[in-house]
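Can you please make up a whole protein chain along with its backbone structure tokens because I've never seen that pairing?
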Amino acid sequence: MNFSETRTELFQADGNTRLLLYEWLPDREVTAVMIGIHGGMAHGGDWVTPALFFKEKGIATYAPDLRWHGTYPKHNDKGKVFFHLNSYDECVQDIHQLYLWVKERHPSAPIFIISHSNGALIALKYGLTLAKETQIRGFIVSSPWLENSVKVPAITKTIAKFIAGISPSFAVKPPALIDVLTHDADITARHHRDEEIGLRGTSVSAKTGVESEKTQTWVRENIKTWAQFPLFAVIAGEDRLAVPQTSQNALRTIPSHLLEMMIHEKNFHENFNEVNRSETFEAILQWVRKHAQ
């Protein structure tokens, strides 16, 4: 797909669903594995920037196009590209099945979850549920989408719930935010190209609005029970999509010995694509090496 990946292949998420999987694999022994969960509107290829950094350090990255994202329509009948999900439980189950698949391929390598935005919301729910059955070594979250920065009037929420009940895939086009995701002009241009060729979504379903708000509330209320996994969080101070203070407040209810938080006050939403990303990647690398032992 031309995101500098080593290869792609199809992952069978369930009996009816195939997801394209991007793989960035080191040329030497794999010392650790990252499973990447991208954000809304995005796709698995967006992990290229951190994946290439970690590849040079002996760390493999596997990143799927989530349902209704990226190449999903090419591999699933009646599919289209937009920010849609049936439920966060379904997303969590997909990531859990991918973990089991990766574990078979790399039985002795420590596995980490790396996630961004809505992907971080999925990751946190996974860490609080099915992941408890795994040997995952830790979770990395960037700009977790625990509260939407774009405020929605109460009447609009009521209408969205009604529409989601009768037409879950009904979609609307939110304000364009590509130009406030990162200060890196080259990556911003790439996002625009991906949108032009249909790889990046431009609309959000009514079902997503209802399910996301419900899951955000659930994660905020339950994250204080996080007790098993080390967690590295990266927060963007100039985030226009996810409220940074909400994320900080929620994450700080996690036991302090499990949490490491990096705050970039001037970053836009996409920490892993920001101009100061080398600093972030180096900190994550040291954290991964510590918890890979």
In short: Residues 7-291 form a domain with the Rossmann fold fold (CATH 3.40.50.1820). The chain has a mean pLDDT of 94. Residues 39 and 152 are 20 Å apart (CA to CA).
